[in-house]
Amino acid sequence: MATSLRQRWDTVNDRPSTKRRSLVDEHRAFQQAISYEIPEYRAKVVHLPHGQTEVSITPANKTNVINVRMGFNPLLDCPRKRRTVEEQEERDKENRQRSAKRAKQRVRYLIKSITADYMLTFSYRENMTDHTRLESDWKEFVRLYRTRYPNWRYIGVPEEQERGSLHLHVAVQGKQDIRWLLRCWLLAIGQPSDDVRSWLIDHVKLGAKSLGAVNVEPPKKRWGGGGTKWKAEKLAGYLTKYLGKDFEVAEKFAKKYWHSRNIEQPVIERFWLRAKTYLEAIREAHDLVFYTGATSLSMWGDCSAQVIWITGETAREKLGQCTQGVPDLDCD
């Protein structure tokens, strides 16, 4: 007989499921939990490859802090309640929003990790609307392309147009072998090999017989246009804007983006800050980035939500070195 989640959790924590604390014990545990100082702000520091650092500061959830100190887990310790249809729909909507937020963050980290600066668009000539087929065709394309470029790295995000047709935006680093890209894509989506061979070797144009295309998409004006190369932050912003839409229309457990496995993962640290006020949190967040040796800082903040986000990049020759001294910030 399978062990329930409740029993497994109790076994790990050496707490029998039949043992319940009395109200006196609960009150004593609560008083002990609030007797220690509760921090005001929480920091998340993300160390990305190539000297990039991000710091985000959010207010502490004091209820969660107290629950952890008391050893209380709302998911396991609260009685389960059967939800109505409306409540379940609302919960599903909230879950999709959280999933979209996590996916956007993940895609942004991946794009910045490979310092992607070019965007490719893989499309079909026909009005192709099948997500399952797109995923299958993409896997076959990657297999073919890596016969020549085994260490190729990418992050791909599908987009559904107004007419329902699907195509795939892919972030890559550096200039690409566009002829090999198109050759592999055409074969992957079902173009006859004789047609591909005639185009690739005999330089016979496919014209209307072509089943698809691969295009290099330069940044538009609002995304830092002026050339064919993207800034990694702008490219990440452009691709993640499609993820929110995709979470609303795609199937519940369908993949919303694809990436290669040979991308270096960021190192993430989480800890409490000493700051007691929002202005002190700004100063402390700035120092966390500045001490990495970052020379160019970007900052975004929301006073009403008490949220801060700062990013910086350290020159490669200064990686591992600390900047001496932190400039004074005018917080008045």
Describe this structure in words.
It is a single chain. This protein is α+β, with helices and mostly antiparallel strands. The protein has 2 domains: 37-97 and 265-313, no CATH class; 115-259, Replication Protein E1, Chain: A (3-Layer(aba) Sandwich). Helices cover 39% and strands 19% of the residues. The protein is built from 10 helices and 10 strands. It has helices at residues 5-12, 23-35, 62-70, 74-77, 85-113, 131-145, 178-188, 193-201, 232-249, 278-290, and strands spanning 41-48, 52-59, 118-124, 155-160, 166-172, 212-217, 258-259, 267-272, 296-302, 307-313. It has a 5-stranded antiparallel sheet. The chain has a 5-stranded antiparallel sheet with strand order 6-3-5-4-7, sandwiched between helices. Helix 2 (23-35) packs across helix 3 (62-70) and helix 6 (131-145) packs across helix 7. The protein is elongated and about 85 Å long. The relative contact order is 0.17. Mean pLDDT is 80; it is low at 4-18 and 321-332.
Major sheet attributes: 5 strands, antiparallel
Into which percentage range does the β-strand content fall?
15-25%
Low-confidence stretches: 4-18, 321-332
Second rung of CATH, namely the architecture of the largest domain: 3-Layer(aba) Sandwich
Mean pLDDT across the residues is 80
Tally of individual domains: 2
Q: Helix and strand layout, with pairings?
A:
Layout: H1 5-12, H2 23-35, E1 41-48, E2 52-59, H3 62-70, H4 74-77, H5 85-113, E3 118-124, H6 131-145, E4 155-160, E5 166-172, H7 178-188, H8 193-201, E6 212-217, H9 232-249, E7 258-259, E8 267-272, H10 278-290, E9 296-302, E10 307-313
Antiparallel strand pairs: 1-2, 1-8, 2-10, 3-5, 3-6, 4-5, 4-7, 9-10
